[in-house]
Amino acid sequence: xxxxxxxxxxxxxxxxxxxxxxxxxxxxxxxxxxxxxxxxxxxxxxxxxxxxxxxxxxxxxxxxxxxxxxxxxxxxxxxxxxxxxxxxxxxxxxxxxxxxxxxxxxxxxxxxxxxxxxxxxxxxxxxxxxxxxxxxxxxxxxxxxxxxxxxxxxxxxxxxxxxxxxxxxxxxxxxxxxxxxxxxxxxxxxxxxxxxxxxxxxxxxxxxxxxxxxxxxxxxxxxxxxxxxxxxxxxxxxxxxxxxxxxxxxxxxxxxxxxxxxxxxxxxxxxx
Length: 272
Fold this sequence. Notes:
Elements: H1 8-33, H2 44-98, H3 105-128, E1 130-131, E2 134-135, E3 147-152, E4 155-159, H4 162-173, H5 190-232, H6 236-260, H7 264-271
């Protein structure tokens, strides 16, 4: 039917052209942003899932940074105690020397002076070692109780060296070279070295656990990122094909619409 008021062919062409143009615009948007989902209307459920996955990934990555900070702190404490251990070896040597009956009073005074200086240095290390401006050992983070590291996504890791740290503090504080007994001077520092070893074992176990926590976080984040990419990322091969296809449809639709709009001119030929 030829009509002036209604051009059905033109309406069909317009609708097809609008759909093709909308699909082409969507493909171009996805190619330009790299995302399949650029707004809630693209995939409402997918956007919600992707948001949760992205939040988990952010928390996991911050958790890994927290864990690495914890590892650095514990390794700083362990490094300080390693120096205390070296000092303890020298103190054992001095205690053994002090117990030698061939030493004169002046010799013993010299040995005692060095021993007490080393004990003072142990005290300084124990009370003044810091990490990021916070004390670590005696009266500090490691010496005051459990250290809780937030590893992200609802997981906390606790490291506790307090019990052995308290023993170490007591054992090094009780050192007195003048109490060396004949025949067993090397045993004077044994208690401190044993407590020192136990404390370092606590710290080493904490470091190992935190390192495994970081590795596990990395594995979880890898899976999370993969799932997030599957939902949110654009497939460039698909979108390139869609853009090319819809560009052709837009061109064809524009041409067809132009011809459909000429149909009304046929009406005028009938009136002539």
